Amino acid sequence: MKRRTFVAATAATAATMVAPSIQAQTLPAGPVRILVGFAPGGGTDILARIVAQKLQTMWGVTVLVENRAGATGVIAAEAVAKAAPDGNTLLMAHINSHALAPALMPKLSYVVDRDFTPLTLVGITPNLLICNNDQPAKTVAELVAQCKANPGKVSFGSAGQGSAQHMALESFKLAAGVDTIHIPYKGSGPMLADLIGGQIAYSFDTMTAATPHVKSGKVRAIAQTRAKRASSYPNVPTMVEAGFPNFEATTWYGLVGPGKLPPAMAQRMNEDINKVLVMPDVVEKLAQYGAEDGGGSAQRFADFIRTEQVKWAKVVKDSNVKLDS
Questions:
Q1: Is CATH 3.40.190.10 the right assignment for the domain spanning 126-224?
Q2: According to CATH, what is the number of the domain 10-125+251-319?
Q3: How does strand 89-94 pair with strand 116-132?
Protein backbone atom coordinates (compact mmCIF):
# COMPACT_ATOMS: atom_id res chain seq x y z
CA MET A 1 0.00 0.00 0.00
CA LYS A 2 2.75 2.35 0.94
CA ARG A 3 4.54 1.68 -2.35
CA ARG A 4 1.32 2.26 -4.32
CA THR A 5 0.73 5.50 -2.44
CA PHE A 6 4.28 6.67 -3.13
CA VAL A 7 4.01 5.82 -6.84
CA ALA A 8 0.66 7.60 -7.13
CA ALA A 9 1.97 10.65 -5.33
CA THR A 10 5.07 10.73 -7.52
CA ALA A 11 2.94 10.50 -10.67
CA ALA A 12 0.69 13.29 -9.43
CA THR A 13 3.68 15.47 -8.67
CA ALA A 14 5.14 14.80 -12.11
CA ALA A 15 1.84 15.69 -13.73
CA THR A 16 1.68 19.05 -11.95
CA MET A 17 5.24 19.76 -13.06
CA VAL A 18 4.62 18.77 -16.68
CA ALA A 19 1.37 20.69 -17.10
CA PRO A 20 2.90 24.17 -16.76
CA SER A 21 5.73 23.10 -19.07
CA ILE A 22 3.27 22.04 -21.77
CA GLN A 23 1.35 25.28 -21.31
CA ALA A 24 4.54 27.32 -21.54
CA GLN A 25 5.30 25.87 -24.96
CA THR A 26 2.34 27.77 -26.39
CA LEU A 27 3.81 31.12 -25.31
CA PRO A 28 7.17 32.79 -25.95
CA ALA A 29 9.88 31.95 -23.44
CA GLY A 30 11.12 35.49 -22.93
CA PRO A 31 10.34 39.15 -23.60
CA VAL A 32 8.14 39.85 -26.62
CA ARG A 33 8.70 42.75 -29.00
CA ILE A 34 5.86 44.09 -31.13
CA LEU A 35 7.46 45.99 -34.00
CA VAL A 36 5.65 49.03 -35.37
CA GLY A 37 6.65 50.47 -38.73
CA PHE A 38 5.80 54.06 -37.85
CA ALA A 39 6.85 56.73 -35.38
CA PRO A 40 5.45 56.86 -31.82
CA GLY A 41 2.08 58.52 -31.45
CA GLY A 42 0.51 57.36 -34.71
CA GLY A 43 -2.46 55.04 -35.01
CA THR A 44 -0.40 51.87 -35.45
CA ASP A 45 1.74 52.71 -32.42
CA ILE A 46 -1.23 53.59 -30.23
CA LEU A 47 -3.14 50.39 -30.99
CA ALA A 48 -0.01 48.27 -30.52
CA ARG A 49 0.55 49.73 -27.06
CA ILE A 50 -3.05 49.15 -26.02
CA VAL A 51 -2.79 45.46 -26.91
CA ALA A 52 0.78 45.04 -25.61
CA GLN A 53 -0.12 46.27 -22.13
CA LYS A 54 -2.89 43.69 -21.80
CA LEU A 55 -0.84 40.81 -23.22
CA GLN A 56 1.98 41.58 -20.80
CA THR A 57 -0.37 41.12 -17.87
CA MET A 58 -1.98 38.04 -19.39
CA TRP A 59 1.26 36.29 -20.35
CA GLY A 60 3.41 37.30 -17.40
CA VAL A 61 6.29 38.36 -19.66
CA THR A 62 7.51 41.77 -20.79
CA VAL A 63 5.80 42.90 -23.99
CA LEU A 64 7.47 45.91 -25.56
CA VAL A 65 6.53 48.06 -28.53
CA GLU A 66 9.52 48.87 -30.72
CA ASN A 67 9.23 51.56 -33.38
CA ARG A 68 11.13 51.00 -36.63
CA ALA A 69 9.76 53.72 -38.84
CA GLY A 70 10.50 53.94 -42.54
CA ALA A 71 9.31 52.96 -46.01
CA THR A 72 5.65 53.19 -44.92
CA GLY A 73 6.01 50.22 -42.58
CA VAL A 74 8.13 47.97 -44.78
CA ILE A 75 11.33 48.20 -42.68
CA ALA A 76 9.61 46.78 -39.60
CA ALA A 77 7.89 44.10 -41.68
CA GLU A 78 11.20 43.01 -43.18
CA ALA A 79 12.69 42.62 -39.69
CA VAL A 80 9.85 40.39 -38.52
CA ALA A 81 9.91 38.33 -41.72
CA LYS A 82 13.55 37.48 -40.94
CA ALA A 83 13.02 36.87 -37.21
CA ALA A 84 13.11 33.45 -35.58
CA PRO A 85 9.65 31.83 -35.37
CA ASP A 86 9.73 31.63 -31.56
CA GLY A 87 7.05 34.21 -30.80
CA ASN A 88 9.46 36.72 -29.32
CA THR A 89 9.11 39.08 -32.29
CA LEU A 90 5.70 40.11 -33.62
CA LEU A 91 4.52 42.84 -35.98
CA MET A 92 1.58 45.18 -35.87
CA ALA A 93 0.91 44.65 -39.56
CA HIS A 94 -0.70 47.43 -41.55
CA ILE A 95 -2.38 47.90 -44.91
CA ASN A 96 0.84 49.51 -46.16
CA SER A 97 3.15 46.59 -45.35
CA HIS A 98 0.77 43.75 -46.21
CA ALA A 99 -1.51 44.98 -49.01
CA LEU A 100 0.00 48.04 -50.69
CA ALA A 101 3.71 47.27 -50.64
CA PRO A 102 3.35 43.94 -52.49
CA ALA A 103 1.66 45.80 -55.35
CA LEU A 104 3.90 48.87 -55.31
CA MET A 105 7.32 47.33 -54.70
CA PRO A 106 8.31 44.60 -57.19
CA LYS A 107 11.59 44.02 -55.34
CA LEU A 108 10.01 43.63 -51.90
CA SER A 109 12.19 41.28 -49.84
CA TYR A 110 9.31 39.32 -48.30
CA VAL A 111 6.30 37.36 -49.53
CA VAL A 112 3.34 37.99 -47.26
CA ASP A 113 1.79 34.51 -47.46
CA ARG A 114 5.12 32.77 -46.92
CA ASP A 115 6.97 34.96 -44.45
CA PHE A 116 4.25 35.82 -41.91
CA THR A 117 1.84 33.96 -39.69
CA PRO A 118 -1.43 35.90 -39.32
CA LEU A 119 -2.65 35.99 -35.72
CA THR A 120 -5.57 38.40 -35.28
CA LEU A 121 -7.07 41.42 -37.00
CA VAL A 122 -7.00 44.20 -34.39
CA GLY A 123 -9.16 46.79 -36.10
CA ILE A 124 -10.28 48.53 -39.29
CA THR A 125 -10.56 52.31 -39.45
CA PRO A 126 -12.04 54.53 -42.14
CA ASN A 127 -10.13 57.34 -43.72
CA LEU A 128 -11.77 60.75 -43.57
CA LEU A 129 -12.11 63.00 -46.57
CA ILE A 130 -11.23 66.33 -44.99
CA CYS A 131 -10.52 69.91 -46.06
CA ASN A 132 -9.61 73.23 -44.53
CA ASN A 133 -12.37 75.66 -43.79
CA ASP A 134 -11.59 77.89 -46.78
CA GLN A 135 -12.65 75.23 -49.30
CA PRO A 136 -16.05 75.59 -50.98
CA ALA A 137 -17.02 71.90 -51.07
CA LYS A 138 -19.19 70.65 -48.24
CA THR A 139 -20.28 67.42 -49.98
CA VAL A 140 -18.58 64.86 -52.19
CA ALA A 141 -20.73 65.97 -55.13
CA GLU A 142 -19.53 69.55 -54.69
CA LEU A 143 -15.91 68.35 -54.48
CA VAL A 144 -16.27 66.37 -57.71
CA ALA A 145 -17.73 69.44 -59.40
CA GLN A 146 -14.83 71.56 -58.12
CA CYS A 147 -12.27 69.05 -59.45
CA LYS A 148 -13.97 68.82 -62.85
CA ALA A 149 -14.12 72.61 -63.13
CA ASN A 150 -10.40 72.84 -62.26
CA PRO A 151 -8.73 69.73 -63.76
CA GLY A 152 -5.29 69.07 -62.36
CA LYS A 153 -5.44 72.04 -59.99
CA VAL A 154 -7.19 70.90 -56.78
CA SER A 155 -4.57 69.71 -54.30
CA PHE A 156 -4.75 66.63 -52.07
CA GLY A 157 -2.11 65.86 -49.45
CA SER A 158 -1.12 62.43 -48.14
CA ALA A 159 1.20 60.93 -45.57
CA GLY A 160 3.53 59.75 -48.33
CA GLN A 161 3.89 58.33 -51.80
CA GLY A 162 2.22 54.92 -51.87
CA SER A 163 0.59 55.36 -48.46
CA ALA A 164 -2.97 54.29 -47.65
CA GLN A 165 -4.04 57.94 -47.90
CA HIS A 166 -2.44 58.27 -51.33
CA MET A 167 -4.15 55.12 -52.60
CA ALA A 168 -7.51 56.31 -51.25
CA LEU A 169 -7.04 59.41 -53.40
CA GLU A 170 -6.21 57.28 -56.43
CA SER A 171 -9.39 55.27 -55.84
CA PHE A 172 -11.37 58.49 -55.71
CA LYS A 173 -9.83 59.78 -58.94
CA LEU A 174 -10.69 56.54 -60.71
CA ALA A 175 -14.24 56.40 -59.33
CA ALA A 176 -15.06 60.06 -59.95
CA GLY A 177 -13.16 60.43 -63.21
CA VAL A 178 -11.26 63.49 -62.02
CA ASP A 179 -7.67 64.72 -62.15
CA THR A 180 -6.07 66.30 -59.07
CA ILE A 181 -2.66 67.24 -57.70
CA HIS A 182 -1.15 64.80 -55.18
CA ILE A 183 1.20 66.36 -52.63
CA PRO A 184 3.00 63.65 -50.58
CA TYR A 185 4.38 64.46 -47.13
CA LYS A 186 6.51 62.54 -44.65
CA GLY A 187 3.63 61.62 -42.37
CA SER A 188 0.21 62.95 -41.42
CA GLY A 189 1.58 65.57 -39.03
CA PRO A 190 3.23 67.91 -41.54
CA MET A 191 0.47 67.25 -44.07
CA LEU A 192 -2.23 68.29 -41.60
CA ALA A 193 -0.27 71.41 -40.66
CA ASP A 194 -0.26 72.51 -44.30
CA LEU A 195 -3.91 71.54 -44.76
CA ILE A 196 -4.94 73.68 -41.80
CA GLY A 197 -2.68 76.47 -43.01
CA GLY A 198 -4.22 76.45 -46.48
CA GLN A 199 -1.15 75.30 -48.44
CA ILE A 200 -3.16 72.29 -49.63
CA ALA A 201 -6.92 71.86 -49.91
CA TYR A 202 -8.04 68.29 -49.23
CA SER A 203 -6.87 64.91 -47.96
CA PHE A 204 -8.04 61.38 -47.35
CA ASP A 205 -6.36 61.04 -43.95
CA THR A 206 -6.66 58.36 -41.29
CA MET A 207 -9.46 58.86 -38.80
CA THR A 208 -6.91 58.47 -35.99
CA ALA A 209 -4.78 61.40 -37.17
CA ALA A 210 -7.59 63.63 -38.41
CA THR A 211 -10.02 63.35 -35.51
CA PRO A 212 -8.41 65.88 -33.10
CA HIS A 213 -8.45 68.53 -35.83
CA VAL A 214 -12.02 67.73 -36.89
CA LYS A 215 -13.19 67.93 -33.28
CA SER A 216 -11.40 71.26 -32.79
CA GLY A 217 -13.01 72.69 -35.92
CA LYS A 218 -9.71 73.29 -37.71
CA VAL A 219 -10.66 70.96 -40.57
CA ARG A 220 -13.98 69.81 -41.97
CA ALA A 221 -14.97 66.18 -42.50
CA ILE A 222 -16.84 65.69 -45.77
CA ALA A 223 -17.09 61.89 -45.93
CA GLN A 224 -15.71 58.67 -44.50
CA THR A 225 -14.42 55.73 -46.50
CA ARG A 226 -15.86 52.54 -45.03
CA ALA A 227 -19.07 51.08 -46.39
CA LYS A 228 -20.72 51.76 -43.03
CA ARG A 229 -20.45 54.79 -40.78
CA ALA A 230 -18.03 54.56 -37.86
CA SER A 231 -19.78 54.76 -34.51
CA SER A 232 -17.61 57.74 -33.56
CA TYR A 233 -18.74 59.65 -36.68
CA PRO A 234 -22.48 58.99 -36.93
CA ASN A 235 -23.20 62.26 -38.76
CA VAL A 236 -20.56 62.02 -41.50
CA PRO A 237 -21.79 60.19 -44.64
CA THR A 238 -19.84 57.42 -46.30
CA MET A 239 -18.55 57.58 -49.86
CA VAL A 240 -21.10 54.86 -50.66
CA GLU A 241 -23.89 57.13 -49.46
CA ALA A 242 -22.38 59.95 -51.52
CA GLY A 243 -22.93 58.01 -54.72
CA PHE A 244 -19.87 55.75 -55.02
CA PRO A 245 -21.32 52.28 -54.37
CA ASN A 246 -18.07 50.31 -54.46
CA PHE A 247 -15.82 52.82 -52.71
CA GLU A 248 -14.10 51.55 -49.59
CA ALA A 249 -10.57 52.61 -48.61
CA THR A 250 -9.70 51.70 -45.05
CA THR A 251 -6.63 51.59 -42.86
CA TRP A 252 -6.31 48.38 -40.87
CA TYR A 253 -4.06 46.84 -38.26
CA GLY A 254 -3.41 43.28 -37.10
CA LEU A 255 -0.84 41.21 -35.26
CA VAL A 256 1.29 38.73 -37.18
CA GLY A 257 4.33 36.63 -36.37
CA PRO A 258 7.14 35.35 -38.56
CA GLY A 259 6.41 32.54 -40.97
CA LYS A 260 6.49 29.00 -39.53
CA LEU A 261 5.36 30.11 -36.09
CA PRO A 262 4.36 26.89 -34.25
CA PRO A 263 0.62 26.28 -34.83
CA ALA A 264 -0.09 25.73 -31.12
CA MET A 265 1.56 29.04 -30.25
CA ALA A 266 -0.26 30.88 -33.03
CA GLN A 267 -3.57 29.46 -31.83
CA ARG A 268 -2.89 30.45 -28.21
CA MET A 269 -1.92 33.97 -29.27
CA ASN A 270 -5.05 34.30 -31.38
CA GLU A 271 -7.23 33.25 -28.45
CA ASP A 272 -5.53 35.65 -26.04
CA ILE A 273 -5.61 38.61 -28.43
CA ASN A 274 -9.32 37.97 -28.93
CA LYS A 275 -9.78 38.07 -25.15
CA VAL A 276 -8.00 41.42 -25.06
CA LEU A 277 -10.13 42.89 -27.84
CA VAL A 278 -13.38 42.32 -25.93
CA MET A 279 -12.19 43.87 -22.67
CA PRO A 280 -14.49 46.88 -22.04
CA ASP A 281 -11.67 49.40 -21.58
CA VAL A 282 -9.95 48.17 -24.75
CA VAL A 283 -13.20 48.35 -26.73
CA GLU A 284 -13.65 51.93 -25.52
CA LYS A 285 -10.10 52.95 -26.46
CA LEU A 286 -10.30 51.35 -29.91
CA ALA A 287 -13.60 53.09 -30.57
CA GLN A 288 -11.99 56.46 -29.80
CA TYR A 289 -9.69 55.88 -32.75
CA GLY A 290 -12.38 54.50 -35.04
CA ALA A 291 -10.94 50.97 -34.93
CA GLU A 292 -13.78 48.48 -35.28
CA ASP A 293 -14.51 44.88 -36.33
CA GLY A 294 -11.30 43.35 -34.99
CA GLY A 295 -11.01 39.82 -33.64
CA GLY A 296 -11.93 36.46 -35.08
CA SER A 297 -9.85 33.57 -36.28
CA ALA A 298 -6.40 33.68 -37.80
CA GLN A 299 -7.94 32.34 -41.01
CA ARG A 300 -10.35 35.27 -41.11
CA PHE A 301 -7.37 37.65 -40.92
CA ALA A 302 -5.44 35.72 -43.58
CA ASP A 303 -8.44 35.81 -45.94
CA PHE A 304 -8.89 39.54 -45.28
CA ILE A 305 -5.24 40.25 -46.16
CA ARG A 306 -5.52 38.34 -49.44
CA THR A 307 -8.70 40.21 -50.38
CA GLU A 308 -7.01 43.53 -49.69
CA GLN A 309 -3.97 42.53 -51.76
CA VAL A 310 -6.12 41.74 -54.79
CA LYS A 311 -8.16 44.91 -54.39
CA TRP A 312 -5.22 47.29 -54.12
CA ALA A 313 -3.18 45.57 -56.82
CA LYS A 314 -5.99 46.48 -59.22
CA VAL A 315 -6.05 50.10 -58.04
CA VAL A 316 -2.27 50.36 -58.44
CA LYS A 317 -2.49 48.93 -61.95
CA ASP A 318 -5.48 51.01 -63.04
CA SER A 319 -4.04 54.25 -61.66
CA ASN A 320 -0.53 53.47 -62.94
CA VAL A 321 1.05 54.58 -59.66
CA LYS A 322 4.83 54.33 -59.59
CA LEU A 323 6.92 54.91 -56.50
CA ASP A 324 9.86 57.26 -56.78
CA SER A 325 13.06 55.27 -57.00
A1: yes
A2: 3.40.190.150
A3: unpaired
